[in-house]
Design a protein that fits this description.
The chain is built from 3 helices and no strands. 1% of the residues are buried. The longest helix has 16 residues. By secondary structure, the chain is mostly helical.
């Protein structure tokens, strides 16, 4: 569950999820399997989010991503 992993375990789990996405697994499927957020059941979709509701660092990362990109 949330906050029950060491940082190293969380990093390894994130790397495993990213490997699956990079190998062609649909993001939505990987989010349902790996995510611990409330949005996991919806395939990780955050829906529409206003720019002012995002952390500036996250917003800048999003702007730099190509369509369909993963960070």
């Amino acid at each position: 569950g949330l906050n029950q992993r060491t940082p190293e375990e969380a990093q390894a789990r994130a790397a495993e999820a990213l490997d699956k996405i990079n190998s062609g697994a649909p993001f939505e499927d990987v989010a349902r399997e790996y995510s611990e957020s409330p949005e996991a059941a919806d395939g990780g979709s955050l829906g529409m989010v206003a720019e002012e509701d995002l952390n500036p660092e996250i917003f800048e990362t999003l702007l730099a991503l190509p369509e369909g990109g993963v960070s």
